Amino acid sequence: MADVVAFRKEEPGGLLLREANGPVLRLTLNNPPANALSLALLEALAAEFDAVASSKDVKVIVIAASGKVFSAGHDLKELTLHRADEDGGRAFFERAVRLAADIMVKITSLPQAVIAEIDGLATAAGCQLVASCDLAICTDSSTFCTPGVNIGLFCSTPMVALTRAARRKQAFEMLLTGETIDASTAKDFGIVNRIVPQQYLRQVVDKYASVIASKSPQALKIGKEAFYRQAEMSMADAYDYAIGVMVENLLARDAEEGIGAFLGKRMPEWKED
């Protein structure tokens, strides 16, 4: 397994901290105290995803957060200020909610694996962000909820990601009650992959990222796209689609190299596109 090297940090301040560590890019939400997804923070996330989408250097993206809250979701104070707009806030609400939704779609569309690193509360659109990531690893003290119903606002957009990560009845339970669930329940529901003690969170996430980054970037790109596309198909259609993907993958350069390396009992040498 290749070691992660070439550590560097960028943007020591700001709403979104960027840390590049070899093939792993760490993006840290930094909007204290609740890491609310303000329009500015959403725009920063969108810009990072757009910039990295075609990168040959970044293999894995980690989304983390500073402080005791992963993210409390949309910035309710910011939204409320725009009720004074001539249209009652409609245009701003549409802009903020659509941008958040676009970011969730971008996550699944990126060729890189995206890992959520959660230490604290992930609520509403913050929970939506966790559910949208390819993998999610949290501390044993982390909590999750979609509490919109408590303030007269059903979490309709978080619902889209949640119902695709958790089992349907469990997702609807969260949406209907607005109650907070602990890390163990979130794992049972399917929202997170693994729970670790707080002191080992970064170490475990870095290990996952390093392992994934050592794989064929060509195979990861093909596989991630196929994973999300087939998930929305019937079983018969999914197999028809997956057969085509598998054949094209077998014909690809990295599959030829990987199989040859396995048969020759040597380490594969992946090449960039």
Poorly predicted regions are 1-12
Largest sheet properties: 7 strands, mixed
What is the level 1 CATH name of the largest domain?
A: Alpha Beta
Order of helices and strands: EEEHEEHHEEHEEHHEHEHHHH
Widest sheet: strand ordering: 1-2-3-4-6-8-11
Task: Tell me the CATH architecture of the largest domain.
Answer: Alpha-Beta Complex
What is the overall number of helices? 11
For the record, what is the CATH homologous superfamily label of the largest domain? Answer: 2-enoyl-CoA Hydratase, Chain A, domain 1
> What is the total number of structural domains?
2
How much helicity do the residues have? Answer: 40-55%
**What percent of residues are in strands?**
15-25%
Q: Give average pLDDT, whole number.
A: 92
What is the 3D shape? Answer: globular
CATH topology of the largest domain: 2-enoyl-CoA Hydratase, Chain A, domain 1
Rg measurement, Å? 20 Å
Report the structural category: alpha/beta
Model description:
It comes from Sinorhizobium sojae CCBAU 05684. One of its GO terms (biological process) is fatty acid metabolic process. Belongs to the enoyl-CoA hydratase/isomerase family. 48% of the residues lie in helices and 17% in strands. It is α/β, with parallel strands linked by helices and 273 residues long. It folds into two domains: 7-213, 2-enoyl-CoA Hydratase, Chain A, domain 1, CATH 3.90.226.10; 217-263, Lyase 2-enoyl-coa Hydratase, Chain  A, domain 2 (Orthogonal Bundle). Strands 1-2-3-4-6-8-11 form a seven-stranded mixed β-sheet, with helices on both faces. Strand 2 and strand 3 form a beta hairpin. Helix 3 runs parallel beside helix 4 and helix 5 runs antiparallel to helix 6. It starts with 6 loop residues before the first strand and ends in a 10-residue tail after the last helix.
